[in-house]
Specification:
The protein has helices at residues 3-18, 53-65, 76-85, 99-102, 144-150, 163-171, 182-191, 220-233, 235-243, and strands at 29-33, 36-37, 41-43, 50-51, 69-73, 90-91, 106-107, 112-114, 116-121, 135-140, 155-160, 177-181, 196-199, 206-208, 211-212. It has 244 residues and is an alpha/beta fold. It folds into two domains: 3-112 and 207-243, 3-Layer(aba) Sandwich (D-Maltodextrin-Binding Protein, domain 2); 116-204, D-Maltodextrin-Binding Protein, domain 2 (3-Layer(aba) Sandwich). It has a five-stranded mixed β-sheet. A five-stranded mixed β-sheet has the order 11-10-12-9-13. Strand 3 (41-43) and strand 4 (50-51) form a beta hairpin.
Length: 244
Amino acid sequence: MKKTTWLLLVGLLLVGLVVPGCSSNTGKLTVATDATWPPFEYVNTDTKAIEGFDIDAMTAIAEEAGLDIEFVNVGWDPLLAGMAQGTYDMAISSITITDDRKKEMLFSDPYFAAGQIVVVRLDEMTITGPGNLSGLVGAQIGTTGAFEIDKIAAAELKTYDDVGFAFQDLMNGQIVAVVCDNPVALGYVGEYPDKLKTVGDVFTDEYYGIAIAKRNSDIVDDINAAIAALEAEGKFDELADKWL
């Protein structure tokens, strides 16, 4: 083998090692999502495809920004750890922009306003909101909902890898409430109107953003420009009508 050819191959291998989040076969940017959070991201049981508000939003943003992407379905904790370590290029998964997360990853401008709300069983009359929340309360692990429950002295937090399991336990009477993002809560209440209801008002101010690996700082401006353009076109309102 010629020396120049050998050096070229070594160089290509090194590039692959330096950029672990990019697919070596396709060159696409990997976008992690925890597809257990309908109506924002979930796996269609019939087609097995990942669908939802976030999936459509990220697809539109990537098209507007001229980015080639592929979605990767991972658990919530591995998603956050992977973004901090640079395993994935981006992530979209109803991710609330927080100061702590900004230390480990970059964020786009917000693309959706959300907040926490309490969900209880339809026959629950005692709990009327976060102010009198007490007993065993469920939330997905590592989410803002879990952090907010921890702040309530009378509430005992029970965490779940999948928020759907929390709602199953709520309907089965194993916990007294679930705290989660308002649009997700409305999705479950809409699916089970004879079993669930929200109580009180949204009690936090939160915004979803696209998480971006720090090594990909060069695409942040393009993504923000795409978000602004789609917002001006009414694309996110269109997606809200479709999914929410």
